[in-house]
Amino acid sequence: MASKAIRTQGTIIAATAATPPVTFTTIGEVISFDGPGGKAQIIDTTNLASVAKEKLPGLPDEGQFTLTVNYVSTDPGQAALAAARIAQSIMHFKVTLVDGGLAEFDAYVMEYKISGKADSKVEASIGMEITGIVDWTDGTTALAEAA
Fold first, then answer.
1. Digits of tens for pLDDT over the chain (147 positions)?
2. How close are the terminal C-alpha atoms of the chain, in Å?
3. pTM, entire model
4. Other residues' Cβ atoms within 10 Å of the Cβ of residue 102
5. Going from the N-terminus, what domains does the chain have, and what CATH number goes with each?
């Protein structure tokens, strides 16, 4: 059976201020991304009549979203994320995969750190904390069912 894997090359990650008007700005020079993804807490409902541990899932926590980029001080998307970190303002993100899969979510930019070393380039690591639910649309069945 042929694989249904999709390439990461061509993925577009964009952001906008969470309030209208909604004009997304592409974040340039993205090397890698991680997330969105998360988990729920476990609520222990065990009582004296229980014969084994009893549990319920808590609220979903969509976790974090991280980017590594080639740092470009003039890139409008990178600059918007750096400014959002300082302002502690919420941003709305859109991750568009090459198969048409789309994830949209709100997040706070919690970390914006640049790094470099000899015989290399300057990179930035950008960490976001997702707030609310991730909306998966037009994506693969696995992504849609996971949401």
1. 898 888 999 999 999 997 766 789 999 999 999 999 889 999 999 999 999 999 999 999 999 999 999 999 999 999 999 999 999 999 999 999 998 899 999 999 999 999 999 999 999 999 999 999 999 887 544 444 444
2. 26
3. 0.84
4. 16
5. 12-41+55-146 (2.30.110)
